[in-house]
Amino acid sequence: MSSLSLAVRDANTMLRRNLLHARRYPSLTLNLLLTPVMLLLLFVYIFGDVMSAGIGGGGADRSAYIAYIVPGLLMLTIGSTVVGTAVSVSNDMSEGVIARFRTMAIHRSSVLVGHVVGSVLQSVLSVVVVGAVGVAIGFRSTDATVLEWLAAFGLLVLFSAALTWIAVGMGLISPNAEAASNNALPMVLLPMLSSAFIPVETMPGWFRPIAEYQPFTPAIETLRGLLLGTEIGHNGWLAVGWSIGLVLLGYFWATSKFGQDPR
Q1: Please, which pLDDT band fits residue 262 given cuts at 50, 70 and 90?
Q2: Which of 55-69, 112-126, 155-169, 231-245 bottoms out in mean pLDDT, i.e. has the lowest?
Q3: What Å distances lie between residue 125 and 9, 36, 163, 170, 246, CA to CA?
Q4: What is the pTM of this model?
Q5: Which residue, 152, 186, 194, 238, could crosslink 216 as a Cys pair with Cβ 3.0–4.6 Å?
Q6: Distances from the Cα of 103 to the Cαs of 100, 107, 173, 248, 263, in angstroms?
Q7: Taking Cα atoms as reference points, which of 31, 226, 255 lies closest to residue 126?
Q8: Phi-psi region of 231 (alpha: psi -120 to 50; beta: other; left: phi over 0)
Q9: Helices (H) and strands (E) in the chain, counts
Q10: What was the pLDDT predicted at 60?
Q11: Which residue has the higher pLDDT, 124 or 31?
Q12: How far apart are CA 138 and CA 64, in angstroms?
């Protein structure tokens, strides 16, 4: 077999291993998934009427805020899900599994690729669940074309891969699962400081740069534009640029740390 064929075979084996772990121990994924679902229900049913009046400039009608908040919550779902990836990688490192893999005749990068692909699949599944909850409470995307839906799906996958590679690096530098969870906490906090819940232009001037100059805001605005037909502007290029940049940064960081002697 060629080197590429061996790498693909080993990566597929590691992917099956990670998916099997996720199926046998679903509590972590469910706990992380619970955060965006609870935030969605909280903001829609507690603050929805007031927020809709502010965003729409009219009467209180939470349907306007449902349409606004769901794209942001989908991105927050990805951030929440990849926290589990950091914890999983840290567990593998601290429990000695990676050390055993190093002694076996397997492609070294397959271990990380298995984690990344498995996490992306879990993120997409989590996004589908949160999206289904959004549809159940009133979210609709009637104006989006098939091409826009495909672009939205591609953006979600690309952004998920970007955050996953960063989470893998965080897991590799963490001495235990608790530290990995804490290190990956910005993945959950950053979308809360973005345009996920309110428009950037309504924020205080001193706070607005925090929301503008980070990866979640352009990704959310691009997804919102694709699903709802709002203006995307330069956010599309920024979202793709942030995603590709984070993929490269996370990949080289993770492979560099993984290539060092085990702790």
Answers
A1: low
A2: 55-69
A3: 24, 13, 16, 23, 22
A4: 0.87
A5: 194
A6: 5, 11, 21, 27, 15
A7: 31
A8: beta
A9: 12, 0
A10: 55
A11: 124
A12: 10
Instruction: Evaluate whether 162 touches 250 at the Cβ level (below 8 Å).
Output: yes
Instruction: Answer whether residue 251 shows pLDDT above 70.
Output: yes
Q: State how far the Cα of 213 lies from the Cα of 207, in Å rounded to an integer.
A: 11
Mapped onto helix, strand or coil, the DSSP state of residue 208 is helix
pLDDT of residue 257: 86
CB 152 within 8 A of CB 71: no
Nearest CA-CA partner of 225 in 125, 157, 165, 143: 143
What's the pLDDT band for 21 if we cut at 50, 70, 90?
Answer: low
**CA atoms of 111 and 160, how far apart (whole Å):** 18
Chain position carrying tokens 């805020």: 65
Amino acid at 100: R
